[in-house]
Amino acid sequence: MGCVVLLMVAGCSRTSEEEGASETVSRELSAIVATCAVARGPVDTLRTANAYWEPFEAGATFRSGDWVRTGPDASTRIELRGGGRIELEERTVVMVERPAPPASGGSVVALESGTARGLLPEDALPDGPLVLRGDNGRQVALTVEAHAGPAEFRVTRTARGMHLSVSRGRLLLSEGTHRRTLEAGNWLDVARGLEDTEHDGPPFPTSLSPGVDARIAWSPELRIPLSWKPLDGARSYQVQVARDLGFTQRIVDTQVESPDFTFLPPEPGMFVWRVSALDEAGRPGESGFARRIFVERQRPRGLLVTPRDGYEAPNNTTAEDLVFAWQSIGGEPRYRLVVARDRELRHPVLVREGSPQQVVLPGLAPGEYYWGVYVAEDPPVPLFQKARRLVVPGPPGARAHDAVPSVER
After folding, report:
1. Residue 65, by phi and psi: left (phi above 0), alpha (psi -120 to 50) or beta?
2. Which of the listed residues 192, 218, 249 is the one where a domain comes to its end?
3. Please, what is the Cα angle at 346 between 340 and 351, to 5 degrees?
4. Order of strands across the sheet with 224-228?
5. Does one domain contain both 142 and 172?
6. Number of helical H runs and strand E runs in the chain
7. For residue 13, is it within any domain?
8. CB-CB contact of 167 with 154 (8 Å)
9. 145 three-state secondary structure
């Protein structure tokens, strides 16, 4: 009997220890608000428990109250709790926090200095993967509409506070009971709040081509057309191309009257371009979003953007639209989107061909799919290393039906 009692006590002790360890792991995981995906150059973090900055690499995790900074010619991409990401440009400092209450999901970002570019996917947490906190304690939540495609934005520290602008898509902003929509090409000062309906900034030139983070194969004869939407009342445009995001190493700084310019890269490398408009009096406005161009020695691949690999659509997506997007290769190529049942894309059920970098498809039939994008040449040139998997669930208890083949050119 004594042995049995001892065994029972030992078993209870082990169970308690295991439960305690499990709770500890759970607390540690829930404390993580962001993760470093990419780090280039000198990047450091100041932990809440430390009094000094320390370097970090890709894979590092951040908890509430941690600071992150980038040095000269440095950048880092941070994946946020609940979806979405921000990329800190050089000489940028931010603090990441948990939202209040913590159960609301997402991450709170306070920009101390510099510039951060962000992307919110359409499948991010509905209650907000990202909250911007201003100097006066204002907290503005950023979200996107379901199935509306990703939204790209920029947050810049100014003398008055934080300057938020949208480069692609549409952001839904919320602060307390106030709601706002910020379209591509517009901006606002976060510190002034959403209830002030008169402070949207005037639109700046919206870049058209090449697309965001375009990757283009190098050749000595390479000519890259840059284009943007014309603005009413603009007398001319100031075009700048530099080797760095801070535009301290400019190789082009000129004015043009038409909404286009041809850039001749001197060699392979990363280049950044932006455009501002000058009014009839010759006064310059704000520059549009800076876009990077990667001129590579070999033809680039791996340019798919969304949906991500393994994405599972919501249960009601059979009646909704799906957004497919990919990065630009520069120029004016025709792209071919292929959706198939097999990983090799040999048996497509749907093909779309055209020049945009984004295609919106009507709801697919329930089932498992694979998708990829090609440059429509002969032979076609893939923009991916491997096709991405996509799952469209059917109604509960229903069997998946094959999609009707569709080919459009």
Report:
1. left
2. 192
3. 50
4. 207-209, 224-228, 260-263
5. yes
6. 1, 35
7. no
8. yes
9. coil
Q: Is the whole-model pTM more than 0.85?
A: no
Would the pLDDT of 45 be above 90? yes
Q: Is residue 137 part of a domain?
A: yes
Domain stop point among 237, 266, 296:
296
Give the number of other CB atoms < 10 A from CB of residue 318. Answer: 20
Residues 72 and 123 in one domain: yes
Q: Is residue 16 part of a domain?
A: no
pLDDT in tens, 294-311: 888 877 667 788 888 888
My answer on whether 146 and 164 are in the same domain is yes
Separation between Cα atoms, residue 228 and residue 208, nearest integer Å: 5
**Which of the two residues, 102 and 329, has the higher pLDDT score?**
329
Quick count: other Cβ atoms within 10 Å of Cβ 200? 14
CA atoms within 13 A on the CB side of 278: 14
pLDDT at 68 over 80: yes
Asked if the model's pLDDT at residue 401 lies above 50, the reply is no
The CATH number of the domain holding residue 389 is 2.60.40.10
**102 and 137 assigned to the same domain:** yes
Quote the tokens at residue 39. 């780090």
> Domain limits at 253?
207-296
**Domain tally, the chain:** 3
Residue 91 — left, alpha, or beta (φ > 0 → left; ψ -120 to 50 → alpha)? left
Cα Rg of the chain (Å, integer): 24
Burial class (CB in 10 A: 0-12, 13-18, 19+), 324: buried
